Amino acid sequence: LKSPYHGGHLEVIVGPMFSGKSEELIRRVTRSVIARQNVQVFKPALDDRYHDSAVASHAGRSVSAVAVRGAAEIRAHLSGEGTLLSAGAADLPDVVGIDEVQFLDPALVPLVLELADAGVRVILAGLDLDFRAEPFGFMPELLARAETVEKLTAICTVCGAPATRSQRLIGGQPARFDDPVVLVGAQESYEARCRVHHVVRP
Ligand code: ADP
Questions:
Q1: Residue in 12, 14, 17, 18 to alter for ligand 1 test, most ligand atoms within 8 A of Cβ
Q2: Which listed CATH number (3.40.50.2300, 2.30.30.30, 3.10.20.340, 3.30.60.20) goes with 153-202?
Q3: ipTM of the assembly?
Q4: How do residues 99-109 score in pLDDT, each as one tens digit?
């Protein structure tokens, strides 16, 4: 089963935390496996190693994935170091899926474009906005360049409306705009919130 695109292309799935991005990535990847396509999934490693892992949704479904520290490791895994993906030397998968792309580095952007140009269906999932509801790093660049963008919503934990934002809480209180990413000794958590109930303290 071929996609409606004649060659490779880029699909991006975005939304706040708990919006089902991983679920949707797993759904698309599983269908490609059923269609007997060659599929490779990646995700950012939380620790210092390159290793076998899995992409798991909050609801518990998963697919196996390789955990990487950056875009260079994805390139190395697909081609062997230094090989031009578009040169046709590499035996590329039909489909490459990558979860939590906002935690990788900006070198991901040229890599996924190169893969799409080389005929690969690239499926990315990640946060469009950070906890301040500001565009997340290089995500706008990916959204602009994608053939398809699916923007998912979660459910606001305060009012039940569609949630487009990720509320960062530190010790149960809304985080400040310039709070450090890691706060020593503080309990940090996240909730899905709508525009009205998303709070960033100045
Ligand atoms: P994401 O990758 O976007 O963080 P996941 O695919 O991991 O999302 O998880 C989505 C699942 O999380 C939902 O199907 C639902 O079971 C669960 N969930 C928990 N809290 C919420 C919420 N506030 N809104 C929507 N779904 C939620």
A1: 18
A2: 3.30.60.20
A3: 0.98
A4: 999 999 999 99
